[in-house]
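FORM 12-B: Structure-to-Sequence Request
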């Protein structure tokens, strides 16, 4: 049984309605955290699943590109629960795309994807950073992608670029947050079976050393690890969760 070692802690997970975000919510709630799920989609189902498993959760409609809405949610969580200890910046989009130099590349898509993946992450962290600083620390987990290491195949240039930007953001915030007790790390998943990748051509399993695609729970485990005391001396790192597709740190 999971030990409730995050009892009394408050977590915000963006993109928490489904997939990796929901799985992370279930895991953090099982460790005793009060979990806030925020998404453009309805989080009711995910909140009910956490409650049915004995956890504490609330759902919020949020578009992470709306900086003021993010700030308002951060204020509301602190007003209601008194603190915010963990943020998992997981909201993201990954539409199939073309390279920027191709004639029919979609530059509106470039704007949309980078706005959600980069600015949305920045807005979400900005909403809780000051509260974490004032309370003496916190955990920030940023969801990047293996596209940061090796580029994408089906996805557009904007996706790989946005996920690489998040690694720069992780390291910058780790360097500057450490003195305030704020620990910042990233997770870079490989090919994970979620709604996001449902219609994508999948790699041959022979190309994956562990011979299977990942599950949301495979990614939620490392996210949960980065939120707990066992990773207290790690900051600015990237955990590669790819079944061995990427064999690098
Ligand atoms: N599935 C994979 O293979 C894979 C691989 C690498 C990285 N990732 C990353 O993992 C994260 C979670 O993806 P997933 O696979 O669970 O996919 P998913 O589509 O199931 O989850 C993404 C969630 O983000 C939400 N979202 C999108 N735009 C938003 C916005 N503007 N504001 C708030 N919420 C928004 C979606 O509604 C959705 O619930 C994403 O950042 C994704 O880029 C996924």
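FORM 12-B RESPONSE
SEQUENCE OUT:
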């Amino acid at each position: 049984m999971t030990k409730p070692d995050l009892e009394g802690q408050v977590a915000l997970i963006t993109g928490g309605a489904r997939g990796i975000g929901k799985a992370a919510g279930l895991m953090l709630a099982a460790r005793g955290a009060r979990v806030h799920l925020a998404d453009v989609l309805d989080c009711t189902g995910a909140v009910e699943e956490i409650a049915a498993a004995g956890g504490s959760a609330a759902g919020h409609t949020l578009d992470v590109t709306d900086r003021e809405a993010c700030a308002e949610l951060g204020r509301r969580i602190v007003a209601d629960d008194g603190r915010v200890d963990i943020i998992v910046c997981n909201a993201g989009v990954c539409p199939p795309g073309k390279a920027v130099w191709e004639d029919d590349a979609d530059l509106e898509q470039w704007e949309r994807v980078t706005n959600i993946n980069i600015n949305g992450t920045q807005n979400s962290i900005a909403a809780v950073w000051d509260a974490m600083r004032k309370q003496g620390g916190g955990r920030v987990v940023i969801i990047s992608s293996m596209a940061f290491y090796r580029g994408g195949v089906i996805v557009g240039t904007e996706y790989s670029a946005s996920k690489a930007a998040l690694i720069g953001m992780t390291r910058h915030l780790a360097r500057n947050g450490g003195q305030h007790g704020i620990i910042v790390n990233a997770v870079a998943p490989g090919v994970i079976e979620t709604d996001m990748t449902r219609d994508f051509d999948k790699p041959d399993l022979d190309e994956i050393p562990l011979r299977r695609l990942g599950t949301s729970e495979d990614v939620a485990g490392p996210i949960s690890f980065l939120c707990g005391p066992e990773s207290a001396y790690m900051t600015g790192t990237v955990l590669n969760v790819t079944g061995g597709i990427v064999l690098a740190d």
